[in-house]
User: Which sequence fits this backbone?
């Protein structure tokens, strides 16, 4: 009887608690998006991947040098990317264009 | 480029979406990439989807999902802008704040939203403005989505207008800014804030706390998101926590630069001659997608093949969906569902074919809405710099054996 009571109570709680699915939060998995080996890879990694995945970058598709430079500048101006001087901008832009470029300057 | 080559080059690597190394000389729109593999890693509360990024999560639904009017929550696409998303939200400690040009600033608990406001339900399509972006050549700015950055759910929540009424808008109120709990890495970086002006507010816009009868998945904005039926998803703010009413439009990157298209008749431009005047992407174009079969499916001769898919538009409603098996010369009407989910929802359709001869068979589908707007052929679609609003006639190619 006691067991039956427990079962009835449990199923009542389960059915009535429509929104009470255990909410334990989430853990988003880490997915590896390997970077192409090339000059400036580590500099680029340190400046881009601290805020977002490399997938976000490479899934922009293969792009022109002008495109990548404009993206780098947008990342600095809008998102405060830690790319602090003209030399850094050039290093990152060149790495992106050499490894994820479409061969066109613009 | 031959279709087969194109598919080969768009293959995926190690469970992650890789962009094919294709180049097309002429600036001509192509069919979007739609054969990317789902990841072998499932994200929380999701089945495995196509993964473009984990931080922030960017997940696309595979084509096979689009055979029914409602998209299951665990197959629903995901797109965030900011990389830091709360990994836990206590629903008993979640509030939405309404401030600015209001008579009374409010802080409403989730519980109060659920119990002290009228609950309403609306079924509506949520589609990224950049869905199908891989159609555009040359490659445009933005994530190179295939066909699955969309879904349709039954949303339950409260009318935005009811919440605004409770706060009381001052006569000076003109714009509403919406902000959620996602954050950039740097505190000084502006949040992902989107705005609507007061003229855009209608009773169909809701703050939704339920999606297909369940809590929203975290990655779709648990516990509360803005639902704006008929328009692309850029303003459907997730984990929404603040509504700020202002007199003037704010200066915001995501309003002033992103999600904009040329403000001209064709909503088009060229890379050499970008439009100076732009406008928000807003209302969704009429569109349809075949969910089954997918390209490469093998089917038998003289066996009935039931084609299934979905069609939708920006809220005028679908008038008809037509299919063609001769490259678009002749079209026959598909059978539509009863439309009981309303004008903002997918209309699921079916169409029966019995292939007669061995070989490849291309199946095209196109939707027409009640305004008479028809989907164009892919090649007729003109380029825009953000790769937005693609709605070319869909095609899948099966092998008849």
Assistant:
């Amino acid at each position: 009887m006691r067991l039956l009571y427990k079962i009835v109570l449990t199923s009542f709680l389960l059915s009535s608690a429509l929104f009470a699915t255990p909410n334990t939060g989430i853990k988003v998995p880490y997915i590896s998006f390997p970077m192409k080996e090339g000059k400036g890879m580590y500099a680029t990694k340190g400046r881009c991947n601290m805020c977002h995945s490399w997938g976000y970058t490479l899934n922009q598709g293969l792009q022109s040098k002008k495109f990548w430079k404009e993206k780098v500048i947008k990342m600095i101006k809008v998102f405060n990317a830690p790319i602090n001087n003209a030399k850094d901008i050039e290093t990152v832009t060149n790495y992106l264009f050499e490894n994820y470029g479409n061969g066109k300057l613009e | 480029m031959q279709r087969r080559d194109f598919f080969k080059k768009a293959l995926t690597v190690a469970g992650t979406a890789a962009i094919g190394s294709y180049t097309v000389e002429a600036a001509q729109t192509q069919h979007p990439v739609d054969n990317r593999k789902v990841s072998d890693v499932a994200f929380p509360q999701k089945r495995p989807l196509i993964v473009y990024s984990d931080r922030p999560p960017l997940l696309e639904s595979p084509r096979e999902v689009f055979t029914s009017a409602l998209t299951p929550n665990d197959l629903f696409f995901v797109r965030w802008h900011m990389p830091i998303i709360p990994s836990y939200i206590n629903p008993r400690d979640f509030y939405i704040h309404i401030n600015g040009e209001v008579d009374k600033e409010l802080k409403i608990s989730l519980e109060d939203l659920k119990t002290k406001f009228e609950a309403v339900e609306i079924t509506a399509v949520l589609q990224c403005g950049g869905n199908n972006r891989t159609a555009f050549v040359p490659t445009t700015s933005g994530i190179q989505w295939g066909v699955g950055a969309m879904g349709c759910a039954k949303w339950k929540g409260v009318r935005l207008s009811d919440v605004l009424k409770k706060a009381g808008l001052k006569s000076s109120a003109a714009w509403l800014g919406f902000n959620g709990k996602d954050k950039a890495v740097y505190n000084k970086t502006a949040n992902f804030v989107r705005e609507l002006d007061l003229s855009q507010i209608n009773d169909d816009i809701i703050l939704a706390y339920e999606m297909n009868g369940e809590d929203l998945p975290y990655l779709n904005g648990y516990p509360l998101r803005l639902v704006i039926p008929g328009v692309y998803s850029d303003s459907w703010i997730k984990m929404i926590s603040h509504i700020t009413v202002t007199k003037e439009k704010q200066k915001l990157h995501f309003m002033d630069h992103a999600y904009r298209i040329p403000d001209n008749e064709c909503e088009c431009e060229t890379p050499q001659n970008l439009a100076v005047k732009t406008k928000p992407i807003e209302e969704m174009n009429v569109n349809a997608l075949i969910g089954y079969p997918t390209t490469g499916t093998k089917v038998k001769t003289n066996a009935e093949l039931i084609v299934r898919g979905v069609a939708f538009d920006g809220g005028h409603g679908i008038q008809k969906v037509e299919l063609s098996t001769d490259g678009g010369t002749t079209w026959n009407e598909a059978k539509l569902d009863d439309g009981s989910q309303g004008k903002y929802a997918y209309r699921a359709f079916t169409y029966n074919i019995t292939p007669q001869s061995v070989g490849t068979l291309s199946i095209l589908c196109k939707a027409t809405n009640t305004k008479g707007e028809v989907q164009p052929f892919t090649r007729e679609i003109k380029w825009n710099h953000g790769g937005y609003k693609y709605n070319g006639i869909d095609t899948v190619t099966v092998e008849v054996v």
User: Anything to note?
Assistant: Residues 287-400 of chain B form a domain with the Immunoglobulin-like fold (CATH 2.60.40.650). Chain B has four helices and 24 strands.
